[in-house]
Design brief:
single chain, 174 residues, alpha+beta, five-stranded mixed beta sheet, 5 strands
Length: 174
């Protein structure tokens, strides 16, 4: 295998990174349909992309293999609410390696890039979430020495089979 390069994302990566991100969304939706992508998901991602590139409190790293992007990780500086003991942390938002590039250590190396950035910030820990249905993802994080901290439960309140116009509408966020 040719050596992969792990580096910060740049503007020229926009198209390929968008495609990888859609791949992540598709895989998540396969594992749990509640994670289905919004109709305008790529447009929203394109809107946020410049902030991830230039915000000092965020990092977007990519894995480049044989001249193509094969994976990415996004992370941001985070701290718990002020009622808890002060702690500087880095939250890993998303980690994705394209299926054809898996098993080559790219995910581990992307996490190492975030870890190195977190250490420059003086962060005490990394925090990450993974879908309960993602057994491979949970096993990956355990190999990175991640240990469960909290469990999030969901109580479904609406019949998702009902037509969208019958459900209460209103989008939060962007």
């Amino acid at each position: 295998m040719k050596s992969a390069a792990i580096r910060r994302a740049r503007e020229a990566d926009r198209q390929r990174l968008g495609a990888l991100w859609l791949g992540l969304l598709a895989e998540q939706a396969t594992l749990d349909p509640r994670f289905g992508a919004a109709d305008d998901a790529l447009e929203r991602w394109q809107n946020d992309f410049p902030y991830w590139l230039h915000d000092d409190g965020r990092r977007l790293f990519v894995a480049e293999l044989a001249g193509d992007l094969a994976g990415f990780v996004s992370a941001h500086r985070w701290a718990p609410p002020p009622v808890y003991a002060e702690a500087d942390e880095v939250y890993i938002d998303e980690l994705y390696v394209a299926p054809a590039a898996r098993g080559k250590g790219l995910g581990r190396r992307l996490v190492e890039a975030v870890r190195a950035w977190a250490e420059t910030l003086g962060a005490e820990r990394l925090r990450v979430g993974v879908l309960a249905a993602n057994a491979a993802g949970r096993a990956f994080w355990e190999r990175q020495q991640a240990r469960p901290f909290a469990v999030t439960f969901t109580i479904e309140l609406q019949d998702r089979a009902a037509p969208a116009q019958e459900r209460k509408r209103g989008r939060l966020g962007f």
